[in-house]
């Protein structure tokens, strides 16, 4: 037994002595390969990287749009959804990033993303309120923001606009104890000018040597679809009212049942919670015809919630928020993102929440007759005389920003004559020329109305009275 054990041990020793040089060589080769790989990695890391450029704000091409071909719209044969019926359902489509692609083409201001500094614990910020709901800084009124910290910390409070651009910083890293505090905003921007009429929100950041806390209402509020209640239209009083359960951004349109959309009365503007009263003369956008007492007239109200503790500024008729924001463009400082928006909000969020507030508006469209050469041919609120077999009608959007925003979407054009649907084009372009067959219309005065309806449910409307004259009627 001992001899067999000794023989086995001897065999193992011989095998080890034979294989040792081979194993040792393999190990040396492996070390050489690792060293070479490290050199390659080092060389690669030291190579200059290609600089990545970020497009900030698209510019509008100076090249004129090609003259579109004259379009003959097919007559409507079967009942289809009218623009007024379509606006009751939102058909907007988001991209995977949660933002309308065409909106990003117009405004693409890159936002900085920051993360809270590492901290041992969280500083709680509670008892946060902003009152009153709305205020008039032009009259010297101020907004009060109150809050309480769980421990002493340096506090920063910043005011932001509806497109998340920095408006002002009312507290910049000042020390506050763990008591209830009140800060005040006079409704002015960083330049000391009174802000335009709009809805604004604020963030609070608190930081100490051992803790960090933040309040950002965009993380868990804003954008939720709101159902206005108690909608009442009083045509004899030229007014209508509705009730909002929370501060919201509101759209109000008026139109005819199974007919055209006539006017946008409130174009996605902020409103305070409670009873809201609006005024309407009962006419279409051009003020051509009175519809207030027409039994077919309907008023539709849509809304989505503003961020928690939003501040609505009113009373400044000297500034226009949309014009201010678009004129400043990429020079503005945008709000840093401290935390992603809560995912549970997505199913209830209106698609309009993801669109730029300055562009998410019903467009103002123009209706002209390019064959009429002089201004004398068109008199405001007077019928346009048309004769011959056909007349060319041109639809366009005069505002350059709105035009680019709408042109980047899919939209259709619907034609009404005397408030009855006549024809439609499912895929429109701008400018749009329509060839109107006058021989199919009775001689005399008619009301011509166009509705432009986008896939994201923006609706523009334009009307014009016309008088069709037959050749035998000419003197």
Descriptive overview:
This protein is an alpha+beta fold. The chain folds into three domains: 120 residues, Sandwich (Immunoglobulin-like), CATH 2.60.40.10; 153 residues, Immunoglobulin-like (Sandwich); 82 residues, Immunoglobulin-like, CATH 2.60.40. It is built from five helices and 25 strands. Strands 1, 3, 5, 6, 8, 9 and 17 form a seven-stranded mixed β-sheet that branches. A five-stranded mixed β-sheet has the order 19-25-24-21-22, with no helix packed on it. A four-stranded antiparallel β-sheet has the order 10-16-13-14, with no helix packed on it. Strand 5 and strand 6 form a beta hairpin. It is elongated. 28% of the residues are buried. The N terminus is likely disordered.
Helix content: 10-25%
CATH architecture of the largest domain: Sandwich
Please identify the top-level CATH class of the largest domain.
Mainly Beta
Strand content: 25-35%
CATH topology of the largest domain: Immunoglobulin-like
The biggest sheet amounts to: 7 strands, mixed
| Overall radius of gyration | 33 Å
The class by helix and strand makeup works out as alpha+beta
Mean pLDDT: 78
* Total individual domains: 3
- Termini separation comes to 138 Å
Secondary structure tally: strands: 25
Q: What would the principal axes of the Cα set say about the shape?
A: elongated
Task: Give a quick rundown of the structure.
With 475 residues, the chain is of the alpha+beta class. The chain is 15% helix and 35% strand.
Looking at this protein, list some descriptive labels:
25 strands, alpha+beta, five-stranded mixed β-sheet, Immunoglobulin-like, single chain, seven-stranded mixed β-sheet, 35% strand, 5 helices
């Amino acid at each position: 037994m001992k001899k067999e054990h000794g023989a086995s041990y001897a065999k193992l020793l011989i095998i080890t002595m034979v294989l040792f040089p081979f194993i040792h060589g393999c190990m040396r080769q492996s070390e050489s390969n690792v060293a070479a790989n490290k050199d390659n990695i080092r060389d690669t890391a030291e190579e200059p990287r290609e600089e990545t450029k970020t497009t900030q704000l698209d510019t509008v091409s100076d090249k004129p749009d090609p003259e579109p071909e004259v379009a003959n719209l097919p007559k409507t044969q079967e009942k289809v959804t009218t623009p007024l019926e379509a606006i009751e359902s939102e058909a907007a489509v988001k991209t995977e990033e949660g933002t309308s692609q065409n909106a990003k083409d117009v405004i693409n201001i890159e936002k900085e993303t920051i993360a809270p500094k590492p901290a041992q614990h969280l500083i709680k910020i509670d008892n946060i309120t902003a009152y009153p709901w709305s205020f008039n800084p032009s009259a010297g009124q101020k907004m009060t923001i109150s809050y309480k910290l769980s421990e002493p910390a340096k506090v920063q409070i910043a005011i932001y606009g509806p497109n998340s651009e920095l408006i002002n910083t009312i507290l910049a890293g000042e020390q506050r104890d763990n008591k209830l505090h009140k800060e005040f905003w006079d409704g002015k921007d960083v330049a000391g000018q009174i802000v335009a009429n709009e809805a604004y929100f604020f963030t609070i950041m608190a930081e100490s040597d051992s803790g960090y806390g933040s309040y950002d209402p965009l993380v868990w509020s804003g954008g939720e679809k709101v159902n206005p209640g108690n909608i009442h239209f009083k045509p004899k009083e030229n007014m209508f009212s509705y009730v909002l359960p929370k501060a919201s951004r509101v759209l109000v349109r008026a139109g005819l049942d199974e007919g055209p959309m006539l006017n946008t009365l409130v174009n996605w503007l902020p409103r305070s919670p409670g009873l809201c009263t609006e005024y309407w003369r009962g006419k279409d956008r051009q003020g051509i015809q009175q519809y207030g007492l027409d039994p077919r007239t309907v008023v539709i109200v849509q809304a989505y919630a503003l961020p928690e503790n939003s501040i609505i500024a009113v009373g400044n008729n000297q500034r226009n928020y949309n014009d201010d924001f678009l004129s400043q463009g990429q020079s503005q400082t945008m709000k840093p993102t401290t935390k992603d928006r809560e995912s549970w909000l997505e199913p209830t969020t209106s698609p309009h929440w993801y669109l730029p507030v300055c562009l998410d508006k019903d467009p103002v469209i123009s209706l002209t007759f390019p064959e009429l050469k002089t201004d004398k041919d068109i008199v405001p609120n007077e019928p346009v005389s048309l004769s011959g077999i056909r007349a060319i009608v041109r639809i366009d959007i005069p505002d350059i920003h709105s035009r680019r925003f709408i042109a980047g979407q899919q939209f259709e054009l619907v034609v009404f004559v005397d408030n009855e649907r006549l024809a439609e084009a499912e895929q429109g372009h701008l400018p749009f020329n329509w060839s109107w067959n006058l021989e199919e219309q009775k001689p005399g005065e008619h009301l011509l109305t166009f509705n432009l309806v986008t896939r994201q449910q923006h609706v523009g409307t334009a009307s014009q009275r016309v008088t069709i004259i037959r050749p035998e009627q000419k003197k």
